[in-house]
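lol ok so funny story. i was supposed to be doing the assay writeup but got distracted and ended up predicting the structure for this chain instead. priorities right. anyway since i did it might as well share w the group, maybe its usefull for someone
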Amino acid sequence: MCSFCDQRAISGETKPPLPEEISSQCRESLETGIDGRNSEIAFFGGSFTAIPENEMLSYLEAVQPFLGEKGFSGIRISTRPDALPEDTLVLLKKYGVTAIELGAQSMSDRVLQMNRRGHTAEDIRQASERIKSHGFSLGLQMMYGLYGSTAEDEEYTLSECISLRPDTMRLYPVVVLEGTHLGELYKTGEYILPSWENMTEFVSHAICRLKHENIALIRCGLHAEKGMECRILGGFYHPSLKELVLEKLYLRKMLEWAEDHSELLRNRSKGSCVIAEVRKGDAGLVSGHNRANRLMFSEKACGIRLSIAENADYAEGILKLCLADKGITETLGEEVYDVFKITGTTGL
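and the output, tada:
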């Protein structure tokens, strides 16, 4: 129960499941056709290795029949950095755990203390090294906008997490919940949230840096169960936060192209359009929520309309832009961008 946390509200559960309930859930998942080879059993919603050892073992034993060739590919757990001694790691390995995610949240000792985390940044570093030395996949979870955290703290935390070379990261912009210490600080005005714009700028920057470092961002934004919304006092909860940020990255490149080719656009032929070509499935990111990117681009591109095409051969983040004049087959002003490419000092 850190300053920001209420796992009961986030998970929608008031009590942990029984081992037999977990076994039943695994069995039903496999019977209904889930591809176990590409799926994991995950113990989340708290610090798995900080619960009594007999309870932890009862959960691990309950899922053993569902691992292996005809079952799930492995077990993923989340836990605290100060709850992973060597003997626990040996035990987890024995029971088929393959991935361990640490709730790092911040790499600033001052911020960790202000948010009642109960561990230090050095605990995170040491636990990360132990996890990797035992052959587990390492995941780190970072929270943006914690009480007392500055823009410099956020950038430092991201850089320090990257330096630990995790396989995966999750980025959680803070959500303020009723009944938490952070909620009380928020209501009294002692804790002031960063702006939405600052949050999306940082998340954009983080996505680009992680892409550049080949670290998979497997979650962006809190995954909350039904009913949690009524407990939210403030913060950055959105069910499609990552998509909103990716839309912003695509728009940024399109506006850059429009500015670079402003003379070409001003002298366009009647009926011209700008063609944006992206990876198959990413057209919605170019168009934007409620066509917001289309409208903004058209406004900045002398009223010219945007046409979107998908290309199955393109990689994620590749964006080709060109002007197509009515009545001719050639295209003008063709440019290819990587929307994740880091430029300058901000990475955006």
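DSSP finds 13 helices and twelve strands in the chain. The first helix runs from residue 7 to 11.
back to the writeup now i swear
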